[in-house]
Amino acid sequence: MLRPKPNIDKLISATHGGINYLELEKLGISPADILDFSVSVNPFGPPPGIKEALNQASIDRYPDSEATELEQLLAGRLNIALDNLVIGSGSTELIRLVATAYFDTDDLVIIPQPTYGEYEIACHLVGARVLKPPMLENFHLNLAETMSLIRRHQPRGIFLCNPNNPTGQYLSQEEVKKILSVAKDSLVVLDEAYIAFAENTWASVDLIERGNLVILRSMTKDYALAGLRLGYAVATESIISVLKRVRPPWNVSSVAQAAGVFALKADGYLDTCGMKIKEAKEFLVKELSRLGFSPLPSQANFFLVKVGDAAKFRQALLNKGILVRDCSSFGLPDYIRLAPHSIADCQKLIAAIKESEVYRNVS
Ligand SMILES: Cc1ncc(COP(=O)(O)O)c(C=O)c1O
Question: Any idea what the CATH number is for the domain that residue 224 is in?
Fold first, then answer.
């Protein structure tokens, strides 16, 4: 039998939140009827009016490979030069581009755990080895251990997710600077997919001048463009020019580019959504605490909750049309991750939990 390369042969896909369409079909539930707390995208949807704007996008021509209009707008908003920016079909594409361009067979990459599964996949795709320091008991990154591993192994790359998926822990500027100071020969990828709705954030973009940092952001998350996918990377001109050489041509569809342009022009939309998300998160945390749960502190627009058997908990709620993220794939089989929706939808979640037999077992 024709086999793929050994590293691909061993590859296991990462688990993600979100709707499993086949599973719903078997349960006889329509995806439209699902209230999805398992993905951490903006729950208030894209800015109003976007559908009309997308109708203007030309779908009979190839898209602009440079995503010129979107890049110009974004560079202006971020106050950086065009040469410091590349757009991707979601930040996940950019994770793969970084690995393809910078990591080679047997290179070592450090990925503190638990975190987004696509970093490891991207490394395995190129045959790199992965070292996975576990978090501390309080769910924080083990900074001392991570720094000591970097000193000892001089890895080719390090992935830092900030705020981290799934813990919601946010590294301070000092902590990231400490890591950068011992990682001078490594490429540090700072994934800020969830920065737009995080609390008490600091500005990271100036750090790219150190020359070994790539910052990733996700407009998929910010503007609820999960069906289109849009992300970007910010780094020095030399890193960006490499990523641009590695990316496939026409990687971002015309429709996704038009969505990005429209979304960036929706002044104040992110701030308004951010305020509503904060309010809904506080509400949900309070209500869950009232039910006897202990949601973990988080600086992100999602948080972990210990529920006992997370797979069972997810299944019980799914039968009621509500989806939560079972965190077993993160090595946390007792935890679910929740990303708040509107307060009315959070009330539905609380009611569903109260009614469910898994709650009676927990309480
Ligand atoms: C930490 C992190 N980065 C990136 C992504 C991917 O987002 P995008 O749709 O921009 O590829 C996710 C999605 O779950 C994520 O959790």
Answer: 3.40.640.10
